[in-house]
Amino acid sequence: MGLLDGKVAIVTGAGRGIGRAEAMLLAAEGAKVVVNDLGVELDGSGRDQSVAQKVADEIMAAGGDAVSNQESVSDHEAARLIVEQAISSFGRLDIVVNNAGITRDKMVYNMEEAMFDAVVAVHMKGTFNLGKWACRYFREKGEGGRIINTTSAAGLVGNVGQTNYGAAKAGIAAMTLIWAREMGKYSVTVNAIAPAARTRMTLAAFGDLTPEEGEFDAMAPENVAPLVAYLASAAAAEVTGQVIGVSAGDIEIFEPWKPIKSISKEGRWTVAELTEKMKEIV
After folding, report:
1. Strand-pair partners of 188
2. Could you read off the pLDDT of 118-150 as tens digits, one per residue?
3. Which of 56, 173, 184, 275 has its CA 20 to 30 A from that of 131?
């Protein structure tokens, strides 16, 4: 018996890295999985349908149940088709893991408009697109659901050269908090993870982070998947509106955009007063 027996999940960007590890573990825990991936390069170019199909085949070979999907989450109507494939293939939908993403890094003064638009389209708009159609289904079905979004430290604390990526990831964290409030009355939980693991993105940024033989692989994508499986399960029915960091064996709860210091007075501040008092909190 698995933790997710009888459940149906969609995992986007599931052809490689973190998404693949998530799809494989959800399937191992009993979920039927729609493996969504366009098979694109890191910057979003190209397309390879075999990438998603290979993971679906791996799940089937291991005794699970999966189908591949090559729709683009950045396309509003295509995202609806992903939800429809889950329902037509397996009869229902219970879990959505928004993981798909690309990067096109540049310093802000060198970033082209198209680079900004492309990254936001996949990460933030893609999360919205699939989240919208899933939430509509969950509300109409009335049997609850789980949404696990993927944010990043780049959006929560910032990262040089990633205006587009960081802005998108911050937006995903905000959507997570909003959806948790909107969907709570329908027994739908919405959480976000902020993972740190070896992916094509980290390889491009930091190089090979593979450990020495025999050492714990702190950057293995498989380290992220257990948290996602937990959040997708009945065990996490009361966990919602959380932004959770996961790296190696470390789990952290983030509290985005909460005040940490303050000053106050009766009435309006003057510029002279602020010139003096702001030193206390900045």
Report:
1. 145
2. 999 999 999 999 999 999 999 999 999 999 999
3. 56
Residue 214 has a pLDDT of: 76
CB within 8 A of 280, min separation 6: which ones?
261, 263
Name the band, by pLDDT with cuts 50, 70 and 90, for residue 258.
Answer: confident
Quick check: 181 and 162 in contact, CB under 8 A? no
Amino acid at 260: I
What was the pLDDT predicted at 55?
Answer: 98
Q: Report pTM.
A: 0.92
**Topology classification of domain 8-280:** Rossmann fold (3.40.50)
Q: Which residue has the higher pLDDT, 251 or 49?
A: 251
Q: Model confidence at 107, in pLDDT bands (50, 70, 90)?
A: very high
Give catalytic residues, as residue numbers: 152, 165, 169
pLDDT reported for residue 216: 82
Q: Are the C-beta atoms of 121 and 74 separated by less than 8 Å? A: yes
Boundaries of every domain in the chain: 8-280
**168, 154, 73: which is closest to 119 by C-alpha?**
168
CA distance 258 to 156: 12
Provide the mean pLDDT of the chain.
93
